[in-house]
Amino acid sequence: MLSQEDNEYITRVGPGTPMGNLMRQYWVPAMLSSELPAPDCDPVRVMLLGEKLIGFRDSNGQVGLLGNHCPHRGASLFFGRNEECGLRCVYHGWKFDVHGNCVDMPNEPPESNFKNKVRATAYPCQERGGIVWTYMGPRATPPPLPDLEPNMLSSERTVVQAIQRECNWLQGLEGEIDTSHLAFLHFGTVKLEDTIPDTFQHYLVKDRAPRYSIVDTDYGAMYGAYRPTGDGRRYWRFANFLFPFFSMIPTGVLGMQILARAWVPMDDTHMMFYSMATDSSFATLRRSDGAVAGYEMEPQGTDWYGRFRLVSKAENDYRIDREKQRSGAEWTGITGIHIQDQAITESMGPIFDRGSEHLGSSDVMVIRVRKRLMEAARALAERGATPPGVDNPEVYRVRSGGVILPEEADWLEATEDLRKAFVDHPELDAKVMGRAS
Q1: To pair with 241 at 20 to 30 A between CA atoms, which of 114, 208, 219, 328?
Q2: Between the CA atoms of 178, 150, 251 and 25, what dihedral angle is there, to the nearest 10 degrees?
Q3: Rounded to the nearest 10 degrees, how much is the dihedral formed by the CA atoms of 236, 168, 245, 17?
Q4: Rounded distance between C-alpha atoms, residue 3 and residue 20, angstroms
């Protein structure tokens, strides 16, 4: 349970807030590269950490992220002409490059040097792995990008997606690091006799109340949730929280699964979920017809909240099918793992009052991550301490997933190599995950 003061402290991310300042120390996913498909394409409105920004790709293919308002008279640069290596405000013709420099001021006399004294708000951008990253922090020279494995592989191997949620970013992140809900929200109707013996799914359905071990890490925190198999072994699920809002869930085999996810605040009541994964890891979410359950998207809009919106949403009750729920075909009656998560986290409201919670032993990772976030934000605010991972991109070179270990094994020592990124393990077999028959 959090006090109202702590709940405000950890959820609010706008300019000048402690948590917003913490996030601005890091590179932040701002867009998908595919949102700016070609040089001089249409600009895009981007809401990020409570700021209204305009993303564009210039004539040379470079991406810029400028403040919404032209520094002249405040007109929105969204309506600007994207041309000749700059975004030109249509009000008076002032043009700005990706660095925010005013490169043309045609309504001023030719002899004027006023354009050299005017800059637009601009944040540096880098593209990697299909994502446009931006740095909104105070450093003149930004820190390195985090070494997230799926974001560093070739585009032929990876799948990148974005989905908006209408709730606070922390609700999305906390749902991600809560492993016990898997056996209910997503597998609630699966019967033990319908699972394949000696597989992850079998042990998950057999014992729906995992036990936990938690450790702090250089990048954030990690849990190991285990279930006895009944034959002297344990089924473990390892997952990671990585500062400031990344997660790695244990949906695959530890050592094989390559994925990372980001829960990026647009503002206090909206967030953008980014998924980065190899195609083999992402395949766990695919239906038999190759589509991804729950990912039917509305057409992209141009307003501040028009990007990456699901067809299933609060207004249509996430297209819940009560007959499927009653019959046992689906636990929730809501189709798709992601949309089930989205329905639950959005149902808590725009910002959940954590003072009304009653947390149990299964919430130890949620409690630990809140503690880590608040400690880091306070250390930055009070002592100027650099948050974890900012200057150490290599600490992000980790993996998550499931594994079966002997009961007496030390869970950290036994999985040290499996938890390392960029290591191949041809001896592993994905069949150990299991599937409902």
Answers
A1: 208
A2: 0
A3: -140
A4: 19
CB atoms within 10 A of CB 63: 21
CA distance 157 to 69: 39
Q: What angle do CA 426, 429, 434 make, to 5 degrees?
A: 165
Contacts of 385 by beta carbon, 8 Å cutoff, 6+ apart: 376, 379
Instruction: Extract the tokens encoding 149.
Output: 């494995």
SS3 state at 359 = coil
pLDDT digits (tens, 9 = 90+) for 232-274: 999 999 999 999 999 999 999 999 999 999 999 999 999 999 9
**How confident is the model at residue 292, as a pLDDT?**
53
- What's the pLDDT tens digit per position in 348-381? 999 999 999 999 999 999 999 999 999 999 999 9
Residue 403: beta bridge partners? Answer: 236
Q: Prior bond to 124 cis, omega within 30?
A: no
